[in-house]
Design brief:
Elements: E1 3-8, H1 13-22, E2 27-32, H2 37-47, E3 52-56, H3 62-75, E4 77-83, H4 104-127, E5 133-137, H5 150-170, E6 176-182, H6 188-196, H7 200-210, H8 219-230, E7 241-244, H9 259-265
Parallel strand pairs: 1-2, 1-4, 2-3, 4-5, 5-6, 6-7
Bound molecules: nicotinamide-adenine-dinucleotide (NAD).
Length: 276
């Protein structure tokens, strides 16, 4: 029987990358609220010779996940579920706007959406006695703080907590749950944050400099870890939130680069970036 995976937020960025990667191993159910991009991703996957079905919906609503589960179960053996849909919008806490888009809607998409995704996934796995696996997309913001991002950070810390709960409650039945906490990943959302910044080039470079690997990651680098976590190759790995962030959260700050090594590797000794 065909194995099926659900991916939310599949119409763009990291979710799109995950959907493409998982389509190599599964029939994928693509969930998103973007009616323009979702069919395009479905077409890309089909054109590559794989199976994909789209479901338009808001992950903040339980019905979206119920519909995704029904569609997935009708296509084969639903064994994997990825909650990736999410976004962020910053606002200073001392002058917080009376705007649902920076509080309620954010919590609905990132936190409530992941909860209902996990709930429908485990309901499906336990009904069919399937040792399924879940991956929730968290963030470095779930474990480290940045001004103006309190709400986003609450939602991502909640995603990590949710992941542990699923792993503990359903571990006895062979069900695993893990989170992936990306650092800066080049997606339309991140690109937009550069464009919106007063100096887009400086904004991008500041993220590269903060990251010990001195670069921004690619969605495929998240997708590969997600594929591993869902697979039986990770059969004893559960309840973890795995940072995929170029060592960003390991650093105490931005250390100086060894001059000799910088020269040997052709890097700017001040920044560690390739010499332009
Ligand atoms: N890009 C990064 O640097 C980065 C870093 C850490 C974590 N993340 C997380 O990765 C995930 C994907 O981010 P991205 O950068 O690929 O963003 P993106 O904007 O490129 O893609 C997000 C997708 O989620 C969909 N979506 C948003 N809210 C939704 C909702 N309520 N219902 C259904 N679909 C919804 C959007 O339509 C979009 O297609 C998010 O959870 C984000 O918090 C991203």
């Amino acid at each position: 029987m065909t194995e099926v995976a659900v991916v939310t937020g599949a119409a763009s960025g990291i979710g799109r990358g995950i959907a493409h990667r998982l389509a190599q191993d599964y029939t994928v159910i693509l969930v998103d609220l973007n009616p323009t991009n979702l069919p395009l991703v479905e077409k890309e996957i089909k054109d590559a010779g794989h199976q994909a079905y789209s479901l338009l919906g808001d992950v903040g609503k339980r019905t979206t996940h119920i519909n995704a589960r029904e569609l997935a179960e009708s296509k084969g053996n639903l064994i994997s579920w990825v909650n990736c849909a999410g976004w962020t919008r910053g606002a200073p806490m001392h002058d917080f706007p009376n705007d649902p888009a920076v509080l309620e809607e954010l919590i609905n998409a990132n936190q409530i959406g992941s909860f209902w995704g996990c709930a429908e996934a485990v309901a499906s796995f336990t009904t069919r006695k399937v040792p399924g696996a879940i991956v929730n997309i968290s963030s470095v913001h779930g474990r480290r703080a940045w001004p103006d991002h309190a709400v986003y950070e609450m939602t991502k810390a909640a995603v990590d907590a949710l992941t542990r709960n699923v792993a503990v409650a359903y571990g006895p039945f062979g069900i695993r749950a893990n989170a992936v906490a990306p650092g800066a990943i080049m997606t339309p959302a991140l690109e937009k944050s550069f464009v919106d910044a007063p100096d887009p080039v400086a904004r991008r470079q500041s993220l590269e400099l903060l990251t010990p690997m001195k670069r921004i990651g690619e969605p495929s680098e998240i997708a590969e870890v997600v594929a591993f976590l869902l697979s039986t190759r990770a059969s004893y790995l559960s309840g973890q939130s795995i940072g995929v962030e170029g060592a960003w959260t390991s650093a105490l700050g931005v250390p100086e680069i060894d001059n000799e090594l910088a020269k040997r590797y052709g890097l700017d000794p001040k920044t560690g970036l390739p010499k332009s």
